[in-house]
Write the structure tokens for this entry.
Amino acid sequence: MTLVGILDWLGLADADPGPAASESDAVRRIASALANMDPGRARYVATFAYLLGRVANADHVLTEDERRAMTAILADEAGLDPGLAEVVVAVAGDESLRRRGTDDFQVAQEFAGLASDEQKLALLRCLFAVSASDEAVVTSEDNEVRRIAVQLKISHDAFVTARAAVRDKLAVLRPGAGIRPATEGGGER
């Protein structure tokens, strides 16, 4: 059976995927919180917020420091009202934790298609700011920022330069600072 035949059998052959067919469910959910914004701008902010949440959730814990950092970044970088930024952070944090691995690459590709090189570098700096907001960039966060940088085709030199801004907070360089005992929540921190 051909693809067209399968689509016919499923009743999807004539289905119109619409303009946002490449948009992930996570991006749609986050962008729905930005209903009063231009749809293209809402999609950009939604992908940006998801990627921030992806780094914040890299260790499976979204701390209050990380939430505050994400809210401030969205208010500053995206020009969102702080109340709206809090709503977007709540949705993005939930979506990035719930959909991790499923939508991660797709959202990075969506962001890459929407952002200029300058905006990608600004995101990279913001990803490190979120990871350092609780005074320790743990290995899982550092690795997640690197994965995102690779997915966005950001040069290794640009990654190293952005990472240098948080060098003093890199847990790997501070013995004992990057591991949380199992009795305190179970994961890295």
